[in-house]
From TrEMBL:
It comes from Nocardiopsis gilva YIM 90087. InterPro entries: CDP-OH_PTrfase_TM_dom. The keyword Transferase applies. This is Phosphatidate cytidylyltransferase. It comes from the Bacteria. Gene3D superfamilies: 1.20.120.1760. The chain crosses the membrane at residues 98-123, 153-181. Keywords: Membrane, Nucleotidyltransferase, Transferase, Transmembrane, Transmembrane helix. GO terms for molecular function: nucleotidyltransferase activity.
């Protein structure tokens, strides 16, 4: 169920040269995070102002690939430059949400506000589930079926075809399904951790007795 997220290692490898250059130049990870927000906002403006069709699709695709590149590079630059911090993690998550909201704001010009709002709210749910699992001690759950990368792909389809309402409906439903899938994975992971902890405590108690 990782979907397009499975391409992340390949994408990161394509960006390796850029990442090294940014580290050598001392670029701060937060700059890349906010650049990703700016690219997301640019995609939103393109959806709002450029007539739907091939040109809009290409423009939105370029801007959203740049947004995903920034989302990939900020963490990599932070790790490679020794600038990883817990607050940096917060900034990264905030940047991801703002970038997505910025794109969807542009959809207000091509679709009913209720549909856009539903899609925007649904799109946040997979990340909230993943973050809740991390807070509880599970590894971060990523991937689809409709994760961040798939949502970007759907917005490119929206710009290229003009089928705003059907695409946003698919984005919303897919995000809800993804949230449920991640919740099941988080529950399974935490259950396995709890069982392992219980067995370790039982073994320790047996040794002490």
């Amino acid at each position: 169920m990782n979907g397009l997220y499975s391409l992340k290692p390949w994408f990161a490898e394509r960006l390796a040269h850029v990442r090294r250059g940014l580290v050598e130049r001392g670029v701060r990870p937060a700059v890349l995070t906010w650049a990703g927000v700016a690219f997301g906002a640019g995609a939103g403006v393109a959806i709002a102002l450029v007539p739907m069709g091939p040109l809009a699709g290409v423009l939105v695709a370029v801007l959203l690939v740049a947004r995903l590149a920034c989302a990939n590079l900020d963490g990599g630059v932070a790790r490679d430059s020794g600038r990883s911090t817990r607050f940096g993690f917060v900034v990264n998550e905030l940047g991801d949400r703002l970038a997505e909201f910025a794109v969807l704001t542009g959809c207000l010009f091509v679709a009913p506000s209720a549909v856009v709002l539903a899609a925007a709210l649904a799109a946040t749910l997979p990340s909230w589930v993943s973050l809740a699992g991390t807070a509880a001690g599970a590894r971060r759950v990523q991937g689809g079926p409709v994760g961040k990368t798939e949502r970007c792909a759907l917005l490119i389809v929206l710009a290229a075809t003009g089928a705003a309402v059907p695409v946003l409906f698919l984005l919303a439903v897919g995000s809800l399904i993804t949230a449920v899938v991640r919740l099941v994975r988080v529950a399974r992971a935490l259950s396995e951790t709890d069982e392992a902890s219980a067995e370790a405590e039982y073994a320790a108690a047996g040794t002490l007795s």
